Amino acid sequence: MEQKTKRMHELVELLNKARYTYEQENTEIMSNLEYDRLYDELLAIEKELGTVMTSSPTVNVGYEVLSELPKEQHEKPMLSLDKTKDVARLAEFIGDQKAMISWKMDGLTIVLTYRDGELVKAVTRGNGEVGEVVTNNARVFKNIPLHIGYQGELILRGEAVIGYHDFEKINDEIEDVDAKYKNPRNLCSGSVRQLNNEITAKRNVQFFAFSLVKADGVDFQNSRMQQMRWLSLQGFQVVENRPVTSETVAEEVAYFANKITENDFPSDGLVLVYDDIAYGQSLGTTAKFPRDSFAFKWADELKETMLLEIEWSPSRTGLINPVAIFEPVELEGTTVSRASVHNISIMEELELGVGDKIKVYKANMIIPQIAENLTRSGVKDIPAVCPVCGGETRISQVNNAKSLYCTNPECQVKHLKSYALFVSRDALNVDGLSEATLEKLVGMGFIKTYTDLFHLDRYADEIKEMEGLGEKSYTKLQKSIESARTTTLPKLIYGLGIANVGLANAKVICRAFGFEVEKIVHASVDELSEIDGVGAVIAKAFVDYFADEHHLEVFYQVLAELQIPKEEMDETEQIFAGINFVITGSVEYFSNRSEMKELIEAKGGKVTGSVTSKTNYLINNDVNSTSSKNKKARDLGVAIISEADFLKLCDETL
Q1: Which end of the chain has the lower number of beta carbons within 10 A, N or C?
Q2: What is this structure's pTM?
Q3: Catalytic machinery residues
């Protein structure tokens, strides 16, 4: 049964990945036949176990918008745990008992209730006595079972969390720096308590069970660890847990401490609970704490150091963030030399000045922070101009905090989206330059023009020292930059971000002018408008862009950095000019649908994502499929052809 449960989770993850790459990335990692085979295997396992996960492709969870979250009182108050930072105190607590040790996850505690195998209720901890009902949102958590095999009433507790990876990804998509979430816990709390569960679904909230409250009729052999194993067999993801005694507790704490840096989920400590259920329950509670469990908080390692400078790092919204640079110290096994201070108000609260003696630590053993300023010399030298563009700065009060802003609308950092497009997959395709990384590099003044992207080696030492990068990341980035130097003219033009000019338009325009640069950049509106699929709006935007002398100068500068192989033009090969295709399903003769798309475009055709009255051919190897695209094609009288039929159109040999 344990292997079946494990296989179920593997299939859910694999099938969801296949569906995502197919629908969102236009690539396939498996054939339709293989997908259907695995789907049927998953259905059979779900039927056998009586368990269906919320993220399973076999179910569709409807989205719903509520006007408010109803409140509900817990049957029993949810008490906090007594805590310590002393391992010896844990050994004293365990005594001669056996216990279970597990992560104390830093998220939002949720109580789940199942009846007759169905999830019927999810309630937040709230204030311990009254919580908010979030059943609607729990149904779209990434890993909660909607249906389980156990048919009695099951009540369990767990932590809803969002991993660091998803936290950073979500924050990267928020342009307003002031609106960014401070930590994964705040993001998770806001996500779980949404009135629209479609928003919750997009946040990748996960649930880790840590305590079973009720499951009548099940023999757990009086063991908490057996309860955890049973919950796992029901389909729940449980917190990592290990058996522990007073003799092994120091060793087990060290085990978890060593794992925390590779752990994607935030944890602010560990939890001990007696394995003997009856013994633990017999102890009762104090007014504040249960007596059967104890929390261990990480003893923050504090190091004294000296503040060397305040580095001011501009962001795309104009906000200039203060970052404390201090003499390097070893913390939790790594060397750190910088910590974000967030805003001027925090600097003033710490009375932070260059040369001060400060104490630093890693919050949750991960994020460097200033704990204390020992000398408090006071805030001074707040820059009057932006360190990137030299524009005037101003101090503004936002959300009760004073922050520094750049007032120059042309500040390079504010054009971060332009750089992000330039290095994106369909443009220059520079792997390793996320918006977050670009923001750091632009903020440091390393990137002021597109051409600077090709000369980051000038700042090799500084980049290797930047948080989140390092030697390995820098080497990989440089390799990707050198690879990006060889590209195509359409990708370069698309990467410039000309209004309304997508990659397909850029390809059509370049082809129409025989890939001759001078003809392309000096094309007239009339010439461009005559190109099928371009039109007056795109033509004007294109001409206006290259009429700007600065744009033209930048274009030639970038062109000088690149190697663009000459593309041979053969007008007799433009056999699909004016013909629109839609590609769906798996392909056999091509490595993926993108390869087929490139061939169509090379022969003058156009590939779109949906079937319309303008579509000439729908390519689907399953010609008789009842899929929505096939149905629409039949309704509109669009020809449905197989891949073999398409190759015949191309006069290719099968």
Answers
A1: C
A2: 0.53
A3: 104
